[in-house]
Amino acid sequence: MRVPLTTRDFLDRAELVYGDRIGVVDEPNQPAPSLGELTYREVARRGRALQAGLDELGVGEGERIAVVSHNAGRLLECLLALPSSGRVVVPVNFRLSTEEVEYIVGHSGARMVLVDPELEPALKRVEAEHRFTTGEEYEQLLRFDTEPVPWSEPDEDATATINYTSGTTARPKGVQMTHRNEWVNAVVFGMHMQIGDRDVYLHTLPMFHCNGWGLPYATAGLGARQVVLRKVDGAEILRRVEQHGVTVMAGAPAVWNAVLDAAAEWDGEVPGRDRVRIIVAGAPPPSKTIARVEEELGWEFNQIYGLTETAPLLTVNRPRAEYDELDPQERARRLSRAGVAALGTRLRTSDSGEVLARGNTVLAGYWQNPDASAEALEGGWFHTGDGGTIDDGGYLTISDRKKDVIITGGENVSSIEVEDVVFSHPAVAEVAVIGVPDDRWGEMVTALVVVAEGRQVTAEEIVAHCRGRIAGYKIPKRVEFRDELARTATGKIQKFKLRESFWADADREI
Ligand code: AMP
């Protein structure tokens, strides 16, 4: 028998098996009325009411619905309920500028946009046929008195979500995730992390980023409680861990550095010792961070590696039984590797050292971009753009990045996009944007600028020029002036040369 694997399965099962349980605890501090505590039955009921409301508006299956929101219960509902009805959810990074959001809404062809009330003033200009804030307006949309029209032909190969990600092009690309991609990711992820109905998951990861790594589906399907956190803050994370008995969290190394800082100031025993397990990815975690998480917090450290394009799960590095007897430093060293291929995934490296992957979590393609899709999937393997090595035990270590992308605080920044904006300043003759090592953010966006002849410009003026044109986290934190930039004989800027002086003391180039 073949039954389509659709994301609907997760909320359906949550409702059936865990209907009476508090499934979602919404963020109390938000501009919209908080949903408070919802049982999984209520989440499912509200999801159907949302679908019925969209039926009434004529926004039916196959339609894209963009949601620009901080983490919130309503965004979580959209992720769970919209694809279930054959609609496509497009979660948008809430830090993007108006112009960037406009591009995504236009490119995805979204007829409907849902906007966080806090972002509404800044995003007023973003147009769509239907536009609602995710506060009172969203509540008005819900229709509890009618049953929604069911998805006419559930199809596991249909697109469930489109996640826009900054890559090597000036414009973000829409990663098209099928129901099957999301299903396999959630099930394999849940299995590797042994998620179960005793777990309490705190959303320390932005849900827009790769659909919160697919964990909203995994945790719902397995009956774990989900606690929504709107803004990442070290001390607040510790307070929620204590208050809600949190057991699982996920995030980039920068999040755990913030938690470690907060723990140093924490009054009394840090909560969650021997209970919490964290899942880390987005950038290579320094082994010092790993040892500190295990020793100072007593939390279990797990690493995964993947991309938005791979749903994200490609590898897993869990503390194995064999690691129990190791001294903390050796344990940390082993856990600092990206991990070993997850069940059903195959990995190899190309002749040039690029990491290639095959598996059921790999994207169907980039939305309306067949050239980029063909390039990424050339030869039947997904090209990650990361450089790495695989050791005898099958463990992958990421060593550098082949693609021209900077990762700061876990978010991708396209160098080209930033270069375009800096270059549009009239006093800039040439610019190269690179990532330089930074303890807090992993990498710091840095612009190397050659000033046009007869012109003058300060670093502050360049930063001011970028403001409003691109999202804040993409704006160079550091601007340095150069007489010239290293180039090849054919005139191509040699980024690796420009990076060399900054990365000389680091043991890897990422
Ligand atoms: P994104 O698509 O925004 O999630 O970014 C994916 C990129 O993050 C990958 O291509 C890697 O460069 C980086 N990344 C993710 N996980 C890890 C990891 N465990 N170690 C090193 N880099 C990582």
Automatic annotation (TrEMBL):
<protein>
    <submittedName>
        <fullName>Acyl-CoA synthetase (AMP-forming)/AMP-acid ligase II</fullName>
    </submittedName>
</protein>
<dbReference type="InterPro" id="IPR042099">
    <property type="entry name" value="ANL_N_sf"/>
</dbReference>
<keyword id="KW-0443">Lipid metabolism</keyword>
<dbReference type="GO" id="GO:0016874">
    <property type="term" value="F:ligase activity"/>
</dbReference>
<comment type="similarity">
    <text>Belongs to the ATP-dependent AMP-binding enzyme family.</text>
</comment>
<feature type="domain" description="AMP-dependent synthetase/ligase">
    <location>
        <begin position="35"/>
        <end position="367"/>
    </location>
</feature>
<dbReference type="GO" id="GO:0006631">
    <property type="term" value="P:fatty acid metabolic process"/>
</dbReference>
<dbReference type="Pfam" id="PF13193">
    <property type="entry name" value="AMP-binding_C"/>
</dbReference>
<keyword id="KW-0436">Ligase</keyword>
<dbReference type="Pfam" id="PF00501">
    <property type="entry name" value="AMP-binding"/>
</dbReference>
<dbReference type="InterPro" id="IPR025110">
    <property type="entry name" value="AMP-bd_C"/>
</dbReference>
<dbReference type="InterPro" id="IPR045851">
    <property type="entry name" value="AMP-bd_C_sf"/>
</dbReference>
<dbReference type="InterPro" id="IPR000873">
    <property type="entry name" value="AMP-dep_synth/lig_dom"/>
</dbReference>
<feature type="domain" description="AMP-binding enzyme C-terminal">
    <location>
        <begin position="417"/>
        <end position="492"/>
    </location>
</feature>
<keyword id="KW-0276">Fatty acid metabolism</keyword>
